[in-house]
Every structure is written in C-alpha cells, then in structure tokens.
Amino acid sequence: MGSPASRVSGVELPPVYCPFESAIHPRVRQVEKRAVEWIRDSGMCASERERAWTVATHSTDFFARFAPVADDDRLLAAALWVYWGFAFDDARCDTGPLSSRPSEFNALAGQVQRACEADSARGSDRFVGALQDIVRRFRGFAPPTQVSRFAHAHRAWLSGVAWQIGNQAAGRMPGLDDFLAMRLLSSGGEPTFALLELATGAQVPDRELHRPAVRALTEMAILVAALDNDGHSLHKELAGGEADQNVYTVLMQELSCPLQDAVRAATGLRDRVVLRFVQLHDRVAPTAGSDLVTYLQGLRYGMRGNNEWGLRVPRYIRSGYWPDEMDDTLLTWADKPSDTRPGPVEGAPSIAWWWDPDLA
After folding, report:
1. For the chain, which terminus, N or C, has the lower number of CB atoms within 10 Å?
2. What class of enzyme is it (predicted)?
3. For the chain, which residues make up each domain, given as ranges?
C-alpha cells in the first residue's frame, strides 16, 4: 500500500486522490467487540465461516470513520447495519443463489424492505429478524423522520440491486450512463450516508437536506465511494472470475478499450466528480446550519474513510489479516487529480445536473 501504484493482474491502479479529512471514533475497538457479540447471536449467519467473513468486514472500523463523533450506542447500531448489509449482499445479492434470479430476488427484497419499515412484519429469511433488531435500535434513539429517511434509502438500495441482478440475468452490460445511475443505488451508498444523521444525532431540516445542492453533494459522495469500491474489489473479482458490472468493464465496452485504459478513464471520471464536490461544498458550507455542517463533514469523512478501510480490509485484499490501525499513515495518496476538466462528464447525462451553475 505504500507503493505509488497497486498492480492488479498486470493492471496498475493509481493512488487515490482524496483531499478530505481523516478521523476515526476513539472507542472503535470497544464498539467492535459489542458488534461481534451481536453478529454471533443474530442468527443471520448460516455457518461459522459466514460469521467469520462477516466479522472480517470490520464494519465498525468502516463507519467509525464516517461518524467519529458518534455516541457509542448510535455508532454500534449504524455499524450493525453495515455488517448486515455486507452479509446480505454476499448471501443474497452479489454471488449468492439469487444473484441471477431477478424474480426470486425481488420477492425476497419486498419481504426484507417491509421488515425494515414495520416491526410487526414477518419473514422466514434469516436476515429479516436481524434487520428488524437494528431498525428497532434506530427507533429507540432517533426521530421518526430520520428512521423514515433511512427506510426510503434502504428501498433505493434494494431497487438498484434488483436492476443489477436483472442485467446479470439477461447477460446485459449497461452503458456508462445507465451504469452510473444504477451504481448510485446498488452500491448501498444511500442507506450508508442516511446513517450519518442516525449516528451523529444531527437533525438536518428538510429544507436544507433536500436542497438540490445538498442532494447533489450526497449523490457525488455516493458515486465517489462506489467507484473507489470498484477499484478496491477489482483484484478479488478478477481472481474469482466475478468481474461483471463495474466501472472498468463498462468503460471497456463503452470505449472499446483494454482494461488499463478503462482504469485511466475511470480514475479521471471519478476525480472530476471529486473536484465538483469540493467546488459545490465550498459554496454551500458557509451558510449551512450546524446540523447540515455535521452532515457535510460526514460526507467528507465518508469518502476518505471508505478508502482508508477499503485499501486494507480482507473483504477486498484477501490478505487473511487486519493490519494495525497505524497503517493509516502508510497509505499513499495522489497529490493532484488525474483530470481537471470542468463541466459534466461526457456520456453521462443522468449526473450532468451536478454541474448546474445555479445549484443552491
């Protein structure tokens, strides 16, 4: 990780440009121990191997970087959903038996979503009860508006996964614009960033959270994290023959180019979004209320922390061990963006509105 670039099956992945602050919750290890106990007792893991792989996502470390100021119990509840999401993704979405059966996945997704929305809902799937326990925790400390926002974000995520599974079942590789719109949903970024209010206790007024500029900033943070995750997981996907719909395979088709050229194009696209985020953030932040400031800081922490976590988590690098937290200081970052062209990304009209000069 200290080298200027990572080599993946003959392909160089450049260092990440990420000009955002780094932080981590001071009691992350204590909260993680509580999370591991919950995973053991939750019933959502079908085997010891599955339980160990879920624990190895180190989701407490992940979200402790998004919300370093969170109360311990709030951080725990948020981290539990992240563990749950990774376990559900592995067993039911990504490579599980439903990963190419859209009708069966949609039936399950409907049950899971209703369990997220209603504590009285019932379902036989082992993930239902665990999810209800997590959302019950949210209801115990957060106002109904925030829990409702999370539930809507959860539905958005499942809809994106259904879209992706439908593509897989049909053997369809989406074009760039469709892929970016799908990835905003299927990456799980909507519910992950919706956890920011739940974890920090910030209560951003609707008039601020739903401003077009704030919505654009949220979507940009989601996409940056999603594209970074495509890079983090590329080695695992190539080694396991799982590389199907990611930004690199999409660009290889879109541009009729080899993987190395797709990596270069993807890096440039991602860096242009980062630059637009910085530009728009600096326009919004000076007049933001205190809770919105906390939320915007969480977006920045999240993009940085997602990389600090993703560059060393066994889920992606399959190293078999979790490096010491001091390894954060050894990560190499790009000093400047690889592409500084202004204006919307070419061939991506679904996200072009982020560059609207009148956003406010």
Report:
1. C
2. lyase
3. 6-327+334-355
pTM: 0.93
Q: What is the CATH number of domain 6-327+334-355?
A: 1.10.600.10
pLDDT of residue 47: 95
Distances (CA, A) of 80 to 59, 150, 192, 205: 8, 14, 11, 26
167 close to 181: Cβ distance less than 8 angstroms? no
* pLDDT tens-digit readout, 255-284: 999 999 999 999 999 999 999 999 999 999
Backbone angles phi, psi at 205, to 5 degrees: -60, 145
- Shortest CA distance to 283 belongs to which of 221, 358, 177? 358
Within 10 angstroms of residue 245's Cβ, the number of other Cβ atoms is 20
Residues 312 and 322: beta-carbon distance below 8 Å: yes
**CB-based contact 119:138 (threshold 8 Å):** no
What's 92's DSSP letter?
A: I
